[in-house]
Fold:
Amino acid sequence: MLPYPHINPVIFKIGPFSVRWYGLMYVVSFFVCLYLCKYQLKERGKEELIPFLENLMFYSFIGLVIGARIGFCFFYYPEYFLKHPLQIFAVWKGGMAFHGGLIGAILTGYYYVKKHKQSFLWWADLIVVTAPVTLFFGRIGNFINGEIYGKCTNLPWGMVFPGAPPCPPNMPGRHPAQLYECIVTGLFLFLFMWKLRKKNWPNGTKLAIFLIVYGILRFFFEFIRVPAQGFPLIFGWMTMGQVLCIGMIIAGLILLYLVRKQFVQKYF
Structure:
């Protein structure tokens, strides 16, 4: 087995205020995505749109964080958070859901873009090719926190995560599922999406591709991850993450069809 590198999730603390690696990963991913989006605008000779981009990404980032927290609370543990609503604000305890963050970012971005009478799908295609960056840094944060670990394994790179239930002697470690996703849905998916950035496709095509591809990848990674505690498996095997991924894939396929038929451009 590989030893789990015990990294203090708190970088430093001043009184009641603490800076954590997980939160820092969100901030780093925001600025990397912003830089890459500015780079694309410069490639297209549209530097004048950079101030609009900065505002759009700022509000979308806020929507992402709020959506990720609300998604975690009510996709996975609705009964608990309905009984303890103040715990929704206890973000320092962890608990963010990608699908909720995606919904929050899309809704916030759509409102801001349409308020300024611009094409949402054009901006969505520009930004979505950088989206895997957030997955890359986010999974690093999960790994440091020792959360979202995988199922038991006897593979030589299995790890014993602090706080995880013990595994049987013949499978003493757990899959470092965070690192798997960091590499595949973070690094590899980013390289794939970034290569598509210059494709002159109808607006919304790249967004649809991301929804489909990430949905498929995440669906299969759910088989490796330990399901959310206390959440019943659907049909005895399907996790809530997989249900959300199916919805994501269907949404991507519908969007791709509508985009190709040019049914949505005037509305989005």
